[in-house]
């Protein structure tokens, strides 16, 4: 399928890496430009014309401009008809998408304070009580993932690797690499080892990313 694709965003962004790993699973070519912290400003008029939220990633392809990382991933998988990654049958698709949405609305917000404090060393995030609360919140969410993986015995949405595993896999790696207390979650540990065998996880998680 001939289809040009440009991705705007720095690889240090976990949301950009969602899209890059998805492209690797799809085996599709793309051009990428560095935008965001340390690179071209997302506050520029040029970028804001593409995404008024001033956030990466943004993609530009034959169908136009798209932003919001989870939406971009859904779009690319659907465009290339990879129904193994995102089923077309409504119930099966919903099971994948509920975990994608959980990653964006529940898991991601839980790490905000602790990650900025412990990894980014941001001086505005150094309240010990808030760090402690943030670590607990993050670990509690990962405990929910542990229970789900115990149920499935494999991947987040069931027996097979899906788009939800790309998103949650990157988030799990960020949790694991943050210097803080990590409860014993055997199912999460096994899941981490399983994902570690995938080239996309090796490239966009293990190779020095957080």
UniProtKB/TrEMBL annotation:
SUPFAM superfamilies per record: GST C-terminal domain-like, Thioredoxin-like
Record protein name field: Glutathione S-transferase
Domain GST C-terminal: 89-210
Residue stretches making up the GST N-terminal domain: 3-84
PANTHER family (UniProt xref): DISULFIDE-BOND OXIDOREDUCTASE YFCG, GLUTATHIONE S-TRANSFERASE-RELATED
InterPro entries: Glutathione-S-Trfase_C-like (IPR010987), Glutathione-S-Trfase_C_sf (IPR036282), Glutathione_S-Trfase (IPR040079), Glutathione_S-Trfase_N (IPR004045), GST_C (IPR004046), Thioredoxin-like_sf (IPR036249)
Domain of life (superkingdom): Bacteria
């Amino acid at each position: 399928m001939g289809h040009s694709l440009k991705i705007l965003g720095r690889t240090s962004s976990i949301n950009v890496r969602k899209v890059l790993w998805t492209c690797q699973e799809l085996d599709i070519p793309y051009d990428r430009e560095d935008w965001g912290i340390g690179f071209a400003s997302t506050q520029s008029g040029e970028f804001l014309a593409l995404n008024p939220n001033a956030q990466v990633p943004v993609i530009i392809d034959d169908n136009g401009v798209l932003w919001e990382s989870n939406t971009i991933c859904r779009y690319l998988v659907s465009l290339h008809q990879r129904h193994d990654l995102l089923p077309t049958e409504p119930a099966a698709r919903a099971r994948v998408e509920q975990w994608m949405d959980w990653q964006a609305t529940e898991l991601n917000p839980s790490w905000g304070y602790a990650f900025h404090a412990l990894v980014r060393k941001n001086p505005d995030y150094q309240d010990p009580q808030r760090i402690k609360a943030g670590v607990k919140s993050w670990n509690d969410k990962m405990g929910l993932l542990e229970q789900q993986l115990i149920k499935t015995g494999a991947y987040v949405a069931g027996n097979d690797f899906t788009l939800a595993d790309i998103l949650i896999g990157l988030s799990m790696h960020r949790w694991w690499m943050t210097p803080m207390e990590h409860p014993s979650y055997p199912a999460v540990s096994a899941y981490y080892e399983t994902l570690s065998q995938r080239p996309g996880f090796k490239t966009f998680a293990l190779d020095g990313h957080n």
